[in-house]
């Protein structure tokens, strides 16, 4: 706690009063660690901190003193006894020495919101609210997907029936082990739901999917995933999966559940191929929360890839369109049909590789005039035609 | 309230027509009175017409039945449907259980048949309980067009074991023996009287 307080005061003091070369070096080292962590896991560091560090490191290098650890909060005052020029003459002392070098480029310090997540590399000085990273950039419902990485979306309700009131339904990112034995809801979030290890059972269906039942218990904890799946590698791994997830405690009878759609986001090379070909692909299928709703999304690949889609239910329908960024689809408010009210969002991700099983996992969070609020998740499927 | 009593109560309410308009999974015996030592079957019947999803659809779930092993002997389960979880026997306290999971059942109809033999003494009633194999999350799912869970009401059953009735020829033989015995008793005093004359 001493070190954290000292470091925070140090950075604030440097920001206010300028800094010595040693302080600049410390700042660059902090930014280096921050950017290294961001490179490993883009979702572990807020974007504004990344941008600030990029700006910081882009400045001409200032003379750097030998790497120093923050001075311990010792009783000895380094500013005393003619120590005003001492590089350690900063910090929580009554007389703060003027900076030996120019003023430090100020950093956009995030508001403290409790401790950092373990593993962020910033736990000793940074109290970042990492929930912001899980929510994704503005306009997205949840964090978007990285090309080539596992990618899934889920609804999240209280209880284990997977259904709930629309206003109490939230959306989360979802991840599934390739063999179906585990899942994580809201990975990287502040309160992820980690399933217990599950046994899986695959049975045939009369369409292109298989039926997967995954169930597991560990003490009082129980998890299940009942899903349509498409497997690859002669059944060695799951390529696409959708439908029911649940996790709870048999003793307390409490739990959470919902519906999900999951796969592996199309890789950068796959996207380049699709965009280079400039083709159009149509993906279609039923939604999961209300499976009377059928969805169809056409993606027009190219230099400025875009998409259009429509959702049809016996009681309502709407249309949408938007942009494609990497593997991610996001609605453009101007392209909704007239019955869609403001604040509505459609978010999706392209799954699978060209020439193989491809799909779209997507969320709809729309308010329709005369119909109310609709939230749903769906896996749409398209098989590439040679 | 123990499980067998609860399922019997639910069965009784169902028979009285107090069952709600919900999906059901029920046990229907081939006969409610079975003779001691006889074999009989109990059908497992699903009614999923009110379940979510498309209709006609496809449905699946896993069930557990329980019975008194002193009264009944389980002889097997037969079905034309896919069994995703094999038939497994076990115990629950003093009762025996049979567990199985099935797939691809249609909206309504017989899922399969349990075979039993009545091995116990004649009784006024012996119950066979039925429940979802997972009493927390449930196992029943509607598969078409996407998977959605539903929670059918489980209806057990009860039946009566009856003593084996004697055949008609045996009754005739007994009747004849009885008549003969009567004649012998009447003839004996008359012979004594003739002898004394």
CATH fold assignment of the largest domain in chain B: Immunoglobulin-like
Shape by Cα distribution of chain B: elongated
Secondary structure tally, helices of chain A: 5
Note the beta-strand portion of chain B. 35-45%
Question: What is the H-and-E element order of chain A?
Answer: HHHHEEEEEEEEEHEEEEEEEE
Q: How many strand segments of chain A? A: 17
Overall pLDDT of chain B? 85
Order of helices and strands of chain B: HEEEEEEEEEEEEEH
Structural class by helix and strand composition of chain B: alpha+beta
Name the poorly predicted regions of chain A: 7-26, 61-75, 87-133
> Which protein chains make the most extensive interface, counting residues with beta carbons within 8 Å of the other chain's beta carbons?
A-B, 28 and 21 residues
Multimerization state: heterodimer
CATH class of the largest domain in chain B: Mainly Beta
Largest beta-sheet characterization of chain A: 9 strands, antiparallel
The chain-level mean pLDDT of chain A equals 79
Description:
The complex is a heterodimer of chains A (386) and B (197). Chain A contains five helices and 17 strands. Chain A has 386 residues and is an alpha+beta fold. Chain A folds into two domains: 2-129, no CATH class; 132-386, no CATH class. In chain A, the strands form two sheets. In chain A, strands 4-3-2-1-9-8-7-6-5 form a nine-stranded antiparallel beta sheet, with no helix packed on it. In chain A, strands 10-11-12-13-14-15-16-17 form an eight-stranded antiparallel beta sheet, with no helix packed on it. In chain A, helix 2 packs across helix 3. Chain A starts with a helix and ends with a strand. The model of chain A is unreliable at 7-26, 61-75 and 87-133 (pLDDT under 50). Chain B has helices at 3-15, 168-196, and strands spanning 24-29, 33-35, 39-47, 59-67, 72-78, 82-92, 95-105, 108-118, 126-132, 141-142, 148-149, 153-155, 157-162. Chain B has two domains: 3-162, Sandwich (Immunoglobulin-like), CATH 2.60.40.680; 167-197, no CATH class. The termini of chain B are far apart. In chain B, the strands form two sheets. In chain B, strands 2, 4, 6, 7, 9, 10, 11 and 13 form an eight-stranded mixed beta sheet that branches. The model of chain B is unreliable at 13-20 and 191-197 (pLDDT under 50). Chain B is elongated, with a radius of gyration of 25 Å. Chain B has 197 residues and is α+β, with helices and mostly antiparallel strands. The A-B interface holds A 160-162, 201, 203-205, 211, 213, 215, 222, 224, 226-228, 242-244, 246, 248, 250, 253, 255, 257, 286-288, 291 and B 52-54, 60, 82, 84-85, 101, 103, 134, 136-138, 141, 143, 145-149, 151.
């Amino acid at each position: 706690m001493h070190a954290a307080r000292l470091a925070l005061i140090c950075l604030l003091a440097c920001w206010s009063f300028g800094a010595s070369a040693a302080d600049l070096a410390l700042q660059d080292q902090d930014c280096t660690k921050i950017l290294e962590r961001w490179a490993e896991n883009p979702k572990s560091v807020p974007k504004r901190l990344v941008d600030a560090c990029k700006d910081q490191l882009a400045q001409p290098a200032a003379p750097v003193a030998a790497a120093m650890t923050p001075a311990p909060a010792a009783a000895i005052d380094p500013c005393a006894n003619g120590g005003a020029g001492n590089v350690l003459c900063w910090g929580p002392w009554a007389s703060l020495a003027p900076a030996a070098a120019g003023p430090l480029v100020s950093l956009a310090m995030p508001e403290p919101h409790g401790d950092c997540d373990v593993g962020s590399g910033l736990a000793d000085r940074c109290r970042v609210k990492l929930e912001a990273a899980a929510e994704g950039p503005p306009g997205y419902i949840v964090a978007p997907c990285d090309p080539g990485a596992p990618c899934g979306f889920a609804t999240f309700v209280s209880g284990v029936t997977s259904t709930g009131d629309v206003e109490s339904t939230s959306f989360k990112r979802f991840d599934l082990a390739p063999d179906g034995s585990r899942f994580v809801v809201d990975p990287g979030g502040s309160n992820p739901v980690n399933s217990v290890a599950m046994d899986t059972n695959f049975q045939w269906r009369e369409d292109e999917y298989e039926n997967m039942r995954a169930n597991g218990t560990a003490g009082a904890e129980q998890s299940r995933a009942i899903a349509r799946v498409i497997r690859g590698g002669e059944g060695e791994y799951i390529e696409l999966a959708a439908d029911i997830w649940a996790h709870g405690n048999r003793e307390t009878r409490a739990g959470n559940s919902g519906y999900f759609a999951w796969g592996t986001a199309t890789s950068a090379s796959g996207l380049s191929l699709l965009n280079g070909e400039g083709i159009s692909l149509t993906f279609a299928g039923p939604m999961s929360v209300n499976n009377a709703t059928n969805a169809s999304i056409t993606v027009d690949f190219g230099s400025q890839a875009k998409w259009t889609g429509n959702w049809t239910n016996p009681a309502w329908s709407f249309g949408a369109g938007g942009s494609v960024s990497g593997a991610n689809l996001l609605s453009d408010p101007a392209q909704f049909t007239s019955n869609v009210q403001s604040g509505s969002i459609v978010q999706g991700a392209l799954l699978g590789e060209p020439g193989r099983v491809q799909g779209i996992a997507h969320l709809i969070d729309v308010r329709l005039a005369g119909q109310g609020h609709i939230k749903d998740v769906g896996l749409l499927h398209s098989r590439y035609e040679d | 309230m123990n499980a067998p009593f609860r399922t019997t109560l639910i069965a009784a309410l169902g028979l009285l027509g107090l069952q709600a308009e919900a999906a059901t999974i029920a046990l229907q015996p081939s006969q409610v009175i079975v003779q001691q030592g006889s074999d009989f079957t109990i059908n497992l019947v699903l009614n999923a017409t009110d379940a979510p999803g498309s209709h006609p659809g496809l449905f699946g779930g896993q069930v557990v039945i329980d019975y008194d092993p002193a009264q009944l002997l389980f002889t097997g389960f037969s079905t034309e449907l896919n069994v995703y979880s094999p038939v497994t026997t076990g115990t629950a306290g003093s009762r025996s259980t049979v567990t199985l999971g099935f797939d691809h059942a249609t909206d309504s109809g017989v899922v399969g048949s349990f075979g039993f033999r009545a091995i116990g003494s004649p009784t006024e009633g012996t119950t066979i309980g039925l429940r979802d194999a997972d009493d927390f999350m449930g196992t029943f799912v509607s598969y078409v067009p996407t998977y959605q869970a539903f929670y059918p009401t489980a209806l057990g059953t009860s039946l009566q074991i009856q003593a084996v009735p004697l055949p008609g020829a045996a009754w005739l033989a007994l009747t004849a023996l009885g008549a003969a015995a009567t004649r012998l008793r009447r003839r004996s005093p008359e012979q004594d009287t003739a002898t004394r004359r």
